[in-house]
Design a protein that fits this description.
9% of the residues lie in helices and 39% in strands. The protein has 175 residues and is mainly β. It has a single domain, classed as TolB, C-terminal domain (Neuraminidase). Strand 9 and strand 10 form a beta hairpin. It binds zinc ion.
Length: 175
Amino acid sequence: MRGMPSRHRLVSRRQNATHVRGQPYQIDMLDVASHRRTPLFKHPVYNLLYGHFSPDGRWVSFTVRVQPNRSRIVIAPVDEPKPVPESAWIKITEEGAEDWADWSPDGRTLYFTSERDGHTCLWGQRIEVNSHRPSGEAFVIKHFHGRTFYPQGGVGQPPETALRLCFQRILAMFG
Ligand SMILES: [Zn+2]
């Protein structure tokens, strides 16, 4: 089996299905039809969040929260519905705790949020086709400096929501 069919979704949940404080979040693949869950990514200490399939369904990007204020954005191959060892995770960038990534429509660039210039903006990192490692420097997709960043002129809309809306528009533009 190469790549996960589109009926699968990625969901984060706490390990061991308990609500014990401090249990890290892992990322499961959820089969929408059967409701079957398959753990794909877990770590004994770090929370794993914001999983997104690549357009061909063969890779997943996600956020590894390595400290309360720091995360690693990684990608990993998913050839079969089974756990992917940490040794197969490829680091794309180091960002803040809430930063997250999603794929360009051709799967060759990872878009991610970053506060590296002091604002939460959208950045891109090209991924080398064969090695799937970062290729070149990260580049700006879109700056969000100041209030123009809120799509409906709204005050009080969480930045996360506004960024997601913008992200979807950018993906639609390329699509
Ligand atoms: Zn910026």
